[in-house]
Design brief:
The chain is of the alpha/beta class. Helices cover about 45% and strands about 25% of the residues.
Length: about 110
């Protein structure tokens, strides 16, 4: 799990990384974000070595949230090769994330 604390970190770890990234935009003062945290941890275990899991605290890196027009948290961005592929806003069940990631991981193998 990569913790991103600035726009520069985001650029290096996500945009320039040339890989599949799940980006969890959250705040420590957001109760739904805390509920989502175990799901993100589970996904990190499930996709270890295939998908980079990143957490962006919007209070520490507000420019990242602004760059993507994030107005509600939690928001999860799926980014592949620097481009946003999917956006999931609010609490979603784990299978929602799995469906998107399985498709991308499968395409990445081709």
């Amino acid at each position: 799990m990569v913790h991103i604390n600035s726009e520069a970190d985001f650029k290096i770890q996500v945009l320039d990384a040339n890989k599949i990234c799940l980006v969890d935009l959250f705040s420590n003062r957001c109760p739904p974000c805390k509920v989502l945290a175990p799901t993100i941890s589970s996904l990190a275990d499930r996709y270890a070595g295939k998908v980079t899991m990143c957490k962006v605290d919007v209070d520490q890196a507000p420019a990242v949230a602004q760059q993507y027009g994030v107005s509600a948290i939690p928001t999860v961005l799926i980014i592949n090769n620097g481009k946003e592929i999917k956006r999931l806003i609010g609490l979603q069940p784990e299978p929602e994330y799995v469906a998107v990631l399985d498709k991308l991981v499968g395409e990445d193998k081709k």
